[in-house]
Amino acid sequence: MEMSGVGPLTAALRMQNVVQSSSRWAQGQQYRPWTLRSLKLQPLSPVPSDIEISRAQTPKPVDQLAQEIGLLQEETEAYGRTKAKVRLSLLDRLREQPDGKYVLVAGITPTPLGEGKSTVVIGLVQALSAHLKLNSFACLRQPSQGPTFGVKGQRGQISTHISMLEISMLINESFNLHLTGDIHAITAANNLVAAAIDARMLHEATQKDKVTVMFSRNPGWKIHGFRAYSILIPGVFLGMFLDFCNLKCDVMYELVFYIYIFGVGFFRLVVVDTNDRFLRKITVGQASTEKGHVRETQFDIAVASEIMAILALADGLGDMKTRLGRMVVGSSRSGQPVTAEDLGVSGALAVLMKDAIKPTLMQTLEGSPVFVHAGPFANIAHGNSSVLADKLALKLVGEDGFVVTEAGFGADIGMEKFFNIKCRASGLRPNVVVLVATVRALKMHGGGPNVSAGSPLPREYIDENLSLVVKGCSSNLRKQIQIAHLFGVPVVVALNVFKTDTQAEIDLVCQMAKESGASDAVPCHHWARGGRGSVELAQAVKQAGSQPSHFQFLYSQETPIVEKIRMIAQKVYGADDIELSPEAQAKIDYYNQQGYGKLPICMAKTHLSLSHLPEKKGAPTGFTLPIRDIRASIGAGFIYPLVGTMSTMPGLPTRPCFYDIDLDPVTEEITGLF
Amino acid sequence: MEMSGVGPLTAALRMQNVVQSSSRWAQGQQYRPWTLRSLKLQPLSPVPSDIEISRAQTPKPVDQLAQEIGLLQEETEAYGRTKAKVRLSLLDRLREQPDGKYVLVAGITPTPLGEGKSTVVIGLVQALSAHLKLNSFACLRQPSQGPTFGVKGQRGQISTHISMLEISMLINESFNLHLTGDIHAITAANNLVAAAIDARMLHEATQKDKVTVMFSRNPGWKIHGFRAYSILIPGVFLGMFLDFCNLKCDVMYELVFYIYIFGVGFFRLVVVDTNDRFLRKITVGQASTEKGHVRETQFDIAVASEIMAILALADGLGDMKTRLGRMVVGSSRSGQPVTAEDLGVSGALAVLMKDAIKPTLMQTLEGSPVFVHAGPFANIAHGNSSVLADKLALKLVGEDGFVVTEAGFGADIGMEKFFNIKCRASGLRPNVVVLVATVRALKMHGGGPNVSAGSPLPREYIDENLSLVVKGCSSNLRKQIQIAHLFGVPVVVALNVFKTDTQAEIDLVCQMAKESGASDAVPCHHWARGGRGSVELAQAVKQAGSQPSHFQFLYSQETPIVEKIRMIAQKVYGADDIELSPEAQAKIDYYNQQGYGKLPICMAKTHLSLSHLPEKKGAPTGFTLPIRDIRASIGAGFIYPLVGTMSTMPGLPTRPCFYDIDLDPVTEEITGLF
Questions:
Q1: Which value, in Å, is the radius of gyration of the alpha carbons in chain B?
Q2: Which residue of A65, A70, A590, B632 is surrounded by the most CB atoms within 10 Å?
Q3: Which of A388, A618, A389, A575 is closest to A603 using CA atoms?
Q4: Active-site residue among A152, A424, A532, A616?
C-alpha cells in the first residue's frame, strides 16, 4: 500500500479502515446464525375462516425476515412489503456451508377436495421453528391462476395444488395473484417460441428469395466464430455461401428451410395460465395473410409447460439457459430435431426468465420463512417446487436445520417424480418422507361413497366408521408407505385431523400406519392450533431425520424407456403391465434413435387413483396401464407418457368459483378467494 | 382525554406526544416540496451506444427518489431496487393541491424507424428538472414484449411505441422486460373472460339439467338482494324459480341460456403479448370434449385489448371495476348485450388488475422521475399512457411544475385520441403540445425515397437536401401543426437533431414551423447531450405554457357515430369522405340501437400516413377513407372503427431481432436489446 505524503495518523486510520472493512467483508461471506422472531398466534375456538385468521395477523416486513435468516441486504429484491426475490449469489457465498435435513411431504391418494398437504408443510415448519426453535424453511409451489378461478374447495379439476388457504397462511397483505410474475414470464417465453416457429415456417415457405441462415450455437455448428444466424441472405446466394462456409449443402438445407414441427410430440406450442377448454384443440393460421399455412395445434396450461419444468429443475442461470436452448421444438424435413437454440431464440428466452429463476421469499402466519417458486402440476407435469429454492433453503437453515418441501398429490405421482426426476437433477437426497393422510380419504379408499366438490359429504365421512378406516389403511395407506420404502427413505405418517374425526379413528390410523412400516404416525392439529398443533409431528420428523436413510432410485437411467415406464406402472401403481398405443411406440422408437433413451420418465396420470381410472380407489390391482401418447421434454430432461385420457388443458366447471370473487374498491379487500 | 391516575409530568408528556404526532400527521397530509438530486451525465463524443450510456450511470434507490419528490413511505411499493408502484391514496392526500402544467408530446407522421418522440419526452423532463430546476415528471407507456422481439430499430411492424432506447435511459440495472407485470395482468384478466365465455356456452348448451342462474349486479336485475348467480339449479326447476323471482321467463331465458357471442364486434376474446401472426384467425373448440362447439375467433395483441384501454382510462379502482364489468362480451340470442358483469367475472377481473392500476415509478439517467403505466398502441388502440399516472404526476410536481406525457405516433392519431378520448375521460386540459419532427421524416414527406428498417438509408437522408425539407415542412409538418390548432392548444416544434443534419436544414425547419403557426420551434440535442441538449426546448415549453390555451374538442359526444368518424377523416386526415362497409354500417345501427352512439371514436389506422395508405406521405388529399369494420369497447368507452387493412395482431419479420438478444449467465448482462 502506498501512502506517500500522508501523515502517520492518517495512515494508521486508513489501515484500520482497511482492516475493518475486510473483516466486515469476511463476516459478510460467512454463514449468519438466525435470529428469527416468531409471531404469536391466538388460536380461537371455533376456528375462524382462513381469511379471518390471515387478516388478524400482521406479517414482518420482508427485509426484516431476510435479515433474521441471515440474508445479506444485497441478496434480496423486494416486491412490495411482504415478498422478495432472493438472488442466487447466496449459493456461492454459502458454498462451504453444510446442508440441513431435507424433508419431503407427500400424501396418500387424495379425495377431489385435497387432504391439506400444503397446510401440513406450513404447520410442520411453524412447529419446528416457532416451537422447537430449530431453523426451518418451507418450499412451496406457486399457485396457477387457472384452478384459482375454477372449482371451489377443489380449486381446479386437475389439481388441488397449493390452495388459496395455504397462501392465506403466508401473507395477509392484500394478496397479489400474480405473485412476482414468474408464471407470466413462463407464458411469455413459451409463446415467444411459438411465434418464432410460426413466423419462421411461414417466411421460409413463402420467401425463398430471402433466407435467414441459421447455425446452432453448438460448437459443432459455429462457423468462423460468428453467430451466423444474424445473416439474411438472398436465396440465390445460398449455395455460394454454403461453399464458403465449407458445409455440406444438404445438412445446411435442412436447417435453413422449413421446419417440420409435428408428429414427434415435443414442445407444446402455446400456453396460457387459464382453464380454457376451447383451446384444447385448435386450428391456427387461417387468416389470408398466412397464405394457407393452416395447422392444428393446442394450448396447454402454463404450469404443464416444458419451460415451467425447466424453471423447477434448473440449478442456476447458466443451466436454465442451456436447458431452454436444448428444448426440441420440432423436427426438420429430414427428421432431425430442431431446438430453440437452432431457432435463435434461446438468448431471448433466458432474458425473459432471468428474474423468474430467483425464488420468492414469504412468511407463514407465525413468521417462519417460506420460498414460493415454480408450480408444475403433479399429474400433468413433475409436480415439485424448484431445485433452487430447496438448495438455497438447505444452505440457509444450516446443518441442524430442516427444509420441508412438498410433492404434489399422492406419493405415487408427486413423490415418485420427486425422487426419480428432481433428486436425480439436483443431486440432493431426502432424509424423511412425511406422508399425509386424512380419515376422510382413508374412508373413501375403504369403500366409502363418492366424494365430490360442491356436494355435501355423505354421513360415512361425518360419523365414526372404523371398518372403512381399516380398509383404507390396509389398502392405499399401506401401499403409499411401501412406495416410499422402495426408495429407502423413512416415512412418518401425518394424520391431518378434522373436527369430525373421533379419537378411536385417529388411534386406529396411527396404529395401522406403524404396522405398515412407518417409523412413526402422529395426529396433526395445525388447522386449529397453528404450529403448536404440529409439535408432535415435528418431534417425529426430527427423530426420523436422525436415522440413516438409504436412498436409491427406482430405475437406472440406462434402462430402456419402455422398461422404465413398466417399472413405474408395476412397482408404484400396482399394474400388471403397460399397453402402448402404436403412436406412443413410434415416438419411443424415434426418441431412442435420437439418443433420448436415457432420460427419466414423467408420467401424466390421474391423481385420484393409483391406477389410470379415477374411480378405482384403495390399492387397485389386475389392471393394464394404457399409454395413449408420449412426449419428450428434452430441455427439462424427461420423457412424458400420457396415461389414459389425461388432458393438459383443464376447463372451468358449470359454476366456476370466480362468481364469488370480488374486490371492494374502497378498502381494496378481496372476498371469495379463500 | 381521560388521564386518571397519571401524574402531571406523564400527562404533559403524553399531551406533547399527541400534539407532535398530530402535527406529524398534518405535515404528512400536506404537499411536500421537492428535494430532487440530479445525477450528472458525462456526455462523451463520439456518443457511446445506448446501453453503454445506460450502464455508466448509477440510479438512485427508488425509495430515495420517492422521498425526494414528496411521496410518503406508505405510498410506494418497491419492485426491486429501481422500480416502485405508487398507491392511488396519494390523490386523496393531495386533493387540494393545484395541478402543474400539462404538456403533450406528439409527432409528425414518422418513418418506419420512429423519430425519437419518447427520447424528446425524457430530454425535456431532464432539462426542466436538472437544468431549469423546475419540478417535472415524464409519463410514458410500458413497452409491449411483442415488438421488442420483432424488428430492430423499428421494434415491431405496427409500432415504434416506447423503444428499448428510452428504457435504457430510465434505468441501467439489469432491465426487467416484465416491468411490474401489468401487461401480464391484462393478459390474464382478458383470458379469464374468454375462458368464462367458452365454459358457459358449452355448459349451457350441453347441461340443460344444471343451470347457473345469472343475474346482473345492475340494480334492475338484483333480486331479493342476493347475488343470485351463485345459484346452480336443476333445469327442471327453472320455471318455478323464475316464478318465485317474479320474472318474465323469456327475459330470464335469454340471460340464463346460451350466449350468442358473434357478429356485433365487441370484446376480443383472447390475447397474448407476443407477435404471433398464426393467431390472427383461428378455430377453437375442436377437441372431442367440446362436443362440436367449434367456432372461429382470433387473438389480439394484449396492448390492443379493451382491458389495456380500461387501465389507461380509469381514474380509480372503483372506476376500473365498473368499466371491467361494463365490457360487452357478446349478445344474447334475442340480441341483448351481455356484459362481463352478467358473466359474474367482473369481481375476479378487478382482483387480477388491482395492482396493475398503480403507476410504476422509475427515473431518467439524470435522476428525474418517470411514471411508466399502461401501453396501448396508438394505431390499433388509443395510444396514450394512463390518466392516473398523469393525475398523480400533476399533483406531485405542484403548481409551477410540468408533466410531460406522450401520445403515440403522429399527431393525427395519438394526439387526436389524446384530446378526444383521454382528455374527455380525465377532465384534464393540456397547456402545450410539443410536436416532434426530424429532418429525415420531413425529407421522406417531401418526396425522398422509401425508408425501411434493416436497409441502409438512401443518400438523400445523409446529405443536405433543402428542397426535400421544404416540401416536407409545407406538407406534413404544417398539417400536423394545424391539427393541434384545431384543438386550440399552442404548439412548440421540437426538431430532434441527428448528426447528419446540417445547420441550414435545422434553421429551415425552425423557420418554416414558425411560419406554419408554431409558437416556437427549436432544435434538440438530448441524444448527444442529455437534458443539457434540451434546455432550449424546455425554455420554449415554459414560455408557451404561460400563454392561455383555448382547448376545445373536435366533436361533441352528441354527434352521431358516422358524423364523428367523418369529422376525424376530413378535418384531421384530410379525406374527402368516408366509405362504410355494409358490415360496419350494420354494427353502427346496432350500437345506436343499444345507446352506444355517444361514445367517442378510436380510429385503428396506419401510423405511416395521414391517410389509410402507408405509402402516401406528406399531406395527402383526394382520398376516401374506407371503414372496413367497427367494434365497440363499451367498458373502455369508445367505438373502434378499423380503417383499411389494419390488423390487431402483428407478426414477426423474416429476421426477428430476438436473434441478437442474449444473456450472459455469469454477469447477468443482457446484450442485443438496444
A1: 27
A2: B632
A3: A575
A4: A152
pLDDT exceeds 70 at position B622: yes
Rounded Cα–Cα distance for residues A290 and A284 (Å):
9
Sort strands B369-372 and B136-140 into parallel, antiparallel or unpaired: parallel
Pick A283's closest partner by Cβ from B85, B286, B660: B286
Contact A119, A527 (CB under 8 A): yes
Phi and psi at residue A177, to the nearest 5°: -60, -25
Q: For position B588, what pLDDT does the model report?
A: 93
User: Cell 369494420 identifies what position?
Assistant: B629
Q: How far is CA B357 from CA A159, A638, B310, B314, B315, in A?
A: 30, 40, 10, 8, 9
Q: Which cell goes with B639?
A: 367505438
Chain A residue whose CA is closest to B191: A274
Specify whether the CB–CB gap between B370 and B140 falls below 8 A.
yes
Helices B535-545, B117-126: inter-axial angle, 10-degree rounding:
80
Q: How are the residues of chain A apportioned to helix, strand and coil, as percentages rounded to the nearest 5?
A: 40, 15, 40
Beta strands A328-332 and A337-339: pairing type?
antiparallel
- With a CB cutoff of 8 Å and minimum separation 6, the contacts of B207 are A654, B235
User: Which of B177, B293, B351 is facing A663, going by the closest CB pair?
Assistant: B351
In the set A82, A119, A160, A180, the catalytic residue is A119
Q: Tell me the pLDDT tens digit for each residue of B359-416.
A: 999 988 888 999 999 988 888 889 999 999 999 999 999 999 999 999 989 999 999 9
Instruction: With CA atoms as reference, report the closest residue to B257 among B341, B159, B354, B333.
Output: B333
Residue-wise pLDDT for B564-610, tens only, equals 999 999 999 999 999 999 989 998 998 998 899 999 999 999 999 99
For the ranges A20-34, B351-365, B446-460, which has the lowest average pLDDT?
A: A20-34
Q: Which CATH number fits domain A61-180+356-545: 3.40.50.300, 3.40.228.10, 3.90.950.10, 3.90.1150.10?
A: 3.40.50.300
Q: CB distance A178–B78 less than 8 Å?
A: no
Could you tell me which chain A residue has the CA closest to the CA of B294? A278
- Residue B174 has, within 13 A of its CA and on its CB side, a CA count of 18
Residues forming beta bridges with residue B238, ordered by sequence position: none
Cell reading at B528: 448527444
Task: Give B81 to chain A, closest Cα distance, Å.
Answer: 7
A498 is catalytic: yes
Q: Alpha-carbon distance A47 to A53, whole Å?
A: 8
CATH architecture under which domain A561-643 falls: Roll (3.10)
Overall fold of domain B87-180+356-545: Rossmann fold (3.40.50)
Distance from CA of B340 to the nearest CA of A (A): 11
Architecture category of domain A184-339 in CATH:
2-Layer Sandwich (3.30)
Count how many pairs of residues, chain A against chain B, have C-beta atoms within 8 Å: 290
Q: What is the pLDDT of residues B515-552, one digit of tens each?
A: 999 999 999 998 777 788 999 999 999 999 998 879 99
Q: Please, are residues B370 and B361 in contact by the beta-carbon 8 Å criterion? A: yes
How many H-runs (helices) and E-runs (strands) does chain A carry?
24, 24
pLDDT, tens only, B87-106: 999 999 999 999 999 999 99
Taking alpha carbons only, the member of A297, A373, A264 closest to residue A634 is: A264
Yes or no: domain B184-353 corresponds to CATH 3.30.1510.10: yes
| Closest listed residue to residue A457, CA positions, set A204, A153, A189 | A153
Could you tell me where the beta strands, DSSP code E, fall in B39-196?
A: 76-79, 83-86, 101-107, 136-140
Cross-chain Cβ contact A347/B280 below 8 Å: no
Torsion sign (Cα): B121, B127, B128, B133: positive
Q: What are the boundaries of each domain within chain A?
A: 61-180+356-545, 184-339, 561-643
